[in-house]
Amino acid sequence: MNKVVLVTGANSGIGLALCERLLSQDTEGLQLCLACRNMQRAQAARCALLSSHPTAQVALLQMDTSSISSVLAAAQEVKLRYNRLDYLYLNAGIMPNPQFDVKGFFKGLFSSHIITMFATGEGILTQKDCVTPDGLQQVFETNLLIRELEPLLCHAGRTSQLIWTSSSNAHRSAFKLEDMQHQRGTQPYSSSKYASDLLSVALNTHYNKQGLYSSVICPGFVMTNLTYSILPSFPAFLWTLLMPVFWLIRMFTNTFTLTPYNGAEALFWLFKQKPESLDPQAKYHSLTSGLGNNYTQPRKMDIDLETSDAFYEKLRQLESEVRKKLKEKQKVCSSLAGPGSS
Ligand SMILES: NC(=O)C1=CN([C@@H]2O[C@H](COP(=O)(O)OP(=O)(O)OC[C@H]3O[C@@H](n4cnc5c(N)ncnc54)[C@H](OP(=O)(O)O)[C@@H]3O)[C@@H](O)[C@H]2O)C=CC1
Ligand SMILES: CC(C)CCC[C@@H](C)[C@H]1CC[C@H]2C3=C(CC[C@]12C)[C@@]1(C)CCC(=O)[C@@H](C)[C@@H]1CC3
């Protein structure tokens, strides 16, 4: 039976590199579904994958992970197309309006935190306006997607995996249970990645019995559209000129994976693992040694079970409120449409 793999944010960067790596290892036994918000970019990614793997099964799915209606419609479509889902890679993500703190960067260069700064971006990045047009954090819509796909993910007698692309930039201090949407802070990226770490731990508590396992990874520092958006005025050739400097930094921190292929290492590694053997409280890091060798390393996350459970409960509450509102909206729409309409 072919394994069904759905990857969000699959049209570029780490998501696309993962798809390429999955197909390189097994072209015939996979049904790959690229879930993207922009169908033109998705089509280009599909063509690129098929040019190197002409016999592969690569489908496209339109989904904007920042919109409730788009997520619900896409989930419906997945349920119509497939009767199982073996891997759900939750990879789509952006850094909303990043601000690079030049002063903080130079201060960090001459401090004892230099390695941490390069490994996590701590102290040199802030962001603005993180909520989606629906007024929610993206992790909420992602949770909704998982809930909608539950019937395909939870099956007696077989396991399935949720794999989140998180970050070492995820920080407990950036996340407040009282301000889940991070309306009052300047670290929405860090906060939302920490929220996905919390949710992953809670999902393991609630779903492992039903055969569903969740893991988080950090791809390391990778040169992608997300990275380029941090310094928009920095021309592409300067990034290329900086590559020797980055290779040099890699001698001191193996988190400088730099290429999407290397960054996808942990995502690919998890694909090959038995989910029961994984540590639910570990983050799996893609790492690249000074000599350019890739490997995956688990590191314990700074998470307590009470907070992860409390967050899970709050998301459940929010979900039932949102579903109630959607039902009311549907009722109003159908009453406006007149009798006979459903
Ligand atoms: N690059 C890095 O150093 C690091 C990246 N990460 C994480 O890796 C993941 C992948 O990012 P990366 O490959 O670097 O960057 P890219 O910008 O190359 O890829 C991000 C992907 O997510 C998609 N996406 C963004 N928002 C949405 C949305 N609302 N709905 C659907 N798709 C969406 C993008 O689509 P589109 O092309 O339409 O914009 C794109 O395909 C992200 O979650 C990021 O936070 C984590 C740590 C480090
Ligand atoms: C222009 C200068 C000479 C070099 C500037 C380098 C910085 C822009 C990078 C150094 C470490 C990088 C980094 C990230 C972004 C770009 C840097 C700050 C991330 C924050 C990207 C998103 C993540 O999730 C983190 C894991 C990355 C950590 C390192």
UniProtKB/TrEMBL annotation:
InterPro entries the record matches: 3KSR/17beta-HSD, NAD(P)-bd_dom_sf, SDR_fam
GO BP term, pick one: cholesterol biosynthetic process
Listed GO MF terms: 3-beta-hydroxysteroid 3-dehydrogenase (NADP+) activity; 5-alpha-androstane-3-beta,17-beta-diol dehydrogenase (NADP+) activity; estradiol 17-beta-dehydrogenase [NAD(P)+] activity
TM region(s), chain numbering: 226-249
UniProt membrane topology term: Single-pass membrane protein
Reactions mediated catalytically: 4alpha-methyl-5alpha-cholest-7-en-3beta-ol + NADP(+) = 4alpha-methyl-5alpha-cholest-7-en-3-one + NADPH + H(+); a 3beta-hydroxysteroid + NADP(+) = a 3-oxosteroid + NADPH + H(+); 5alpha-cholest-8-en-3-one + NADPH + H(+) = 5alpha-cholest-8-en-3beta-ol + NADP(+); 5alpha-androstane-3beta,17beta-diol + NADP(+) = 17beta-hydroxy-5alpha-androstan-3-one + NADPH + H(+)
EC number: 1.1.1.210, 1.1.1.270, 1.1.1.62
Listed GO CC annotations: endoplasmic reticulum membrane
Compartments (UniProt record): Endoplasmic reticulum membrane
Subunit text: Binds to the short form of prolactin receptor.
Family: Belongs to the short-chain dehydrogenases/reductases (SDR) family. ERG27 subfamily.
UniProt-recorded name of the protein: 3-keto-steroid reductase/17-beta-hydroxysteroid dehydrogenase 7
Chain's gene name: hsd17b7
